[in-house]
Amino acid sequence: MTSVDSVDMNKQNEFARLISMMSDRPKTFCVITYGCQMNAHDGEKIAGILSSMDITEAVREDADLVIVNTCCVRENAERKALGNVKYLAHRHKDNPRFLLGVCGCMVQENKDAGEAKRMFPEADFLIGTHNLHALPEVLYNAIITGGATVSVSADDRAPIAEGVPAIRENRHKAFVNIMYGCDNFCSYCIVPYVRGRERSREPGAILREIEGLLETGCKEITLLGQNVNSYGKNLSQEISFAKLLHKIDALSVPRVRFMTSHPKDLSDELIEAMSSLQSLCKHIHLPVQSGSDRVLSLMNRRYTREDYLNKLRRLRAAASNICVTTDLIVGFPTETEQDFEDTLSLVEEADFAAAYTFIYSPRKGTKAAAMDGQIPAEVSSRRIERLIAVQEAHTRAILGAQIGSVQTVLVDEVSRRSASHVSGKTEAGISVSFAGSAELIGRFVNVQITSAGHNTLRGSIAF
Ligand code: SF4
After folding, report:
1. What is the per-residue DSSP string for 72-100?
2. Is 227 in the pocket of ligand 1 (CB under 6 A)?
3. How far is the CA of 67 from the centre of ligand 1 (A)?
């Protein structure tokens, strides 16, 4: 299987042109996105496509067209998306031009058009994850027919669409997809069912996109994929993720990040790249999920606790100042007190700078959802509280050790708490706030760290 540029974007561009000439087209849009960075970037593509039709962005209450970009990885995100769709449905009565669209993983989960319609009867159109590029055609049909239109492809090796426009949230930071889908089938995870099998973009297309971003002043690129470490395996001319990083480094991007990495595919070649490439930020997000070999095996993670810790040691030996963050799940089916203690001891040993901690939530259609031994909610809640307390002690120690150092911060925004402060991220991905004004946004600033909060740093400009 090779990734191909065979999606007919000319056809979609023609639909976009037709819509832009319609007097009864929606004039304003709002995209509501749930979930991961992949979804956030899909939201940027939706904004890019709609802007190309001369439809302008607005707040939710003022928009003629609202698209809810859904996530089904966790129950909470699903509930919120369903609630928002129900809440928005009444707008049809007040605004005859109003259109409500739903896209993303919750639509793709159903695969079949009838099921998708039953899940979102209020929607004017529905688009699955493989068909986002077809938004112009779907929207055109929704405007013309006035009936619900559905575009969902059951092909889990759907070709990649190149040349989809995107309006990025920031000018100085950008997400760039390098691959789509996942072949790992971790037993708790819905992603392979809703994002399809692994398909990598051709390196040339990725490099061209990055060059274009650099020309517009972009300073930081985050390469996106469900499992970036296995990038390139399905291309006709196989190329490793580390080799792609070398090619990107040669473009002199100031900062490159990537996510997410699967520990089993973290190669020595990538470890070497982490230590040698100037552009690569010294930060890796490496989800471990559990410290128990028994649970890791049930999760189908295909590494042991010792494999993981060994890779961490090798990473830290190669790049001593690397910052490691992780994901952890508690309450996986059959998790015993001893399994949970193994997770706590791994967290102590691994010394993560931060961890996203989750209580296991069964996802329909996954292997784990059908397993015996689901853990009662109160047990999982108790465990997660203990886990958070252990992790917080490590985060505090790592942040505290930065006090007095000078960190290079790429400034993102005016601080939400104070108009006289700005905030941005260090190379390790830690948030720092300091006194400064909006003109610093998008610039690198050396900041002397003066204090550490719960999970952020504070400082002042170093002269
Ligand atoms: S690697 Fe596992 S957890 Fe990550 S997306 Fe693939 S199946 Fe899901």
Report:
1. -SSHHHHHHHHHHHHHHHTHHHH-TT-EE
2. yes
3. 26
Cβ atoms within 10 A of the Cβ of 8, count? 11
Q: Whose structure tokens read 């989960």?
A: 109
The model's pLDDT over 242-275, given as tens digits with 9 standing for 90+, comes to 999 999 999 999 999 999 999 999 999 999 999 9
Q: Is the pLDDT score of 86 beyond 90?
A: yes
C-alpha dist (Å) from residue 94 to 68, 99, 101, 111, 395 = 19, 11, 17, 32, 49
CA dihedral 425, 428, 429, 430 (to 10 degrees): -70
What CATH number has the domain spanning 9-151? 3.40.50.12160
Q: What is the pLDDT of residues 121-137, one digit of tens each?
A: 999 999 999 999 999 99
* Cα–Cα dist 108/158, whole Å: 12
- The pLDDT of residue 2 is 39
Q: Which atom of ligand 1 is nearest to the CA of 183?
A: 6
CATH node for 406-461: 2.40.50
Residue 210 CA, chain-centre distance (Å), reads 18
Cβ–ligand 1 distance for 191 under 6 Å, the answer yes
Residue with structure tokens 């007097």? 23
Query: Is the shortest distance between the CB of 262 and ligand 1 below 6 Å?
Result: yes
Is beta strand 173-177 parallel, antiparallel or unpaired with respect to 149-151?
Answer: unpaired
The yes-or-no verdict on residue 278 having pLDDT over 60 is yes
Residues 6 or more apart whose Cβ sits within 8 Å of residue 204: none
Residue 88 CA to ligand 1 centre (angstroms): 32
Topology adopted by domain 173-400: pyruvate-formate lyase- activating enzyme (3.80.30)
- CA 232, 353, 368, 42 dihedral sign is negative
